[in-house]
Amino acid sequence: MILVTGASGSVGREVLSAVRKAGKPVVAMYRNVEDTGTAPPGVATVFADFADLATLQKALRGIKTMFLVCSPIPQLVELESNAIDAARQTGVRHIVLNSALGAADYPKSFPSWHRQVEEKLKLSGMDYSILRPNSFMQNIAAYQGPSIRAQGAFYAAMGNAKLSFIDVRDIAEITANILGNPAAHAGKIYELNGPQAFHYAEVAAMVSKVAGRQVRFVDIPEEAQRKAMLDLGMPQWQVEALLDLQRYYTVEKKGAEITPVLEHLLGHPAIRLEQYLSENKELFRPQAAGA
Ligand SMILES: NC(=O)c1ccc[n+]([C@@H]2O[C@H](COP(=O)([O-])OP(=O)(O)OC[C@H]3O[C@@H](n4cnc5c(N)ncnc54)[C@H](OP(=O)(O)O)[C@@H]3O)[C@@H](O)[C@H]2O)c1
Question: Of 7, 152, 193, 239, whose CB count within 10 A is highest?
């Protein structure tokens, strides 16, 4: 039996859907009992908190393969470590870990947190597979969408750094393949880049085209971006983590690589940014302001 953690989250929800599509027996794990009601019809559910060992042990009973994902928060290392400990105690054989690009070489921000969990998992004695995805296409609607809708513009200290965005649905499909045949991927670490790399001005041009309105990217100083995020009420730790990650792209010049790994694992072409944007064009139009 497969356990998909984070089933209410953007990655976990898609992984759950992909595992179901593949016809594998699966249990969806939610942190809140109320969220179990949001599971797709017919899916077995459990609720457990990574911070609560007793609930985790209960959720993990009978589970042999686990997909582990947690929100990008400073407690991620402790929370995912708890899940790894509980999995080992309850006889899980294989964990598929959602990590992040940069975990190999960037000792800051989210990648460095993921790296600590990777190290813990490697020493756990269980089999593992690690996925290190690049920035999600879905981030564009989530993070840039509000100002695109309101002002027809988005702002960041990104200069002309490029990113090979990846669609969460492709990550999910790969994850489902691995969960369905974990032995073939034991001990593997996959760095997952999207099929094309774009700088933000190019993203703005593509959004303009699909949304049928002019959308601009405005390159701003990092200090202005920090202030804007703080003014929006984002916590300091999150602002600094996001800016640190951004420097991985702008200063370290990472994140623009295009590799064949994604399409090799998918066995078919990856979703392209233009497809994602056009499927979600309403999110970039002013009338979607309540979205
Ligand atoms: N965004 C990107 O471009 C990107 C790129 C590479 C890697 N990543 C990594 O991908 C991961 C997942 O991102 P996401 O967008 O799917 O995050 P998300 O939407 O916040 O989902 C995280 C999931 O973890 C669950 N969770 C949080 N704390 C928990 C706890 N104490 N016990 C049990 N479950 C808990 C959440 O449950 P609730 O709904 O109850 O909070 C949610 O289901 C992050 O670790 C991030 O660093 C992101």
Answer: 7
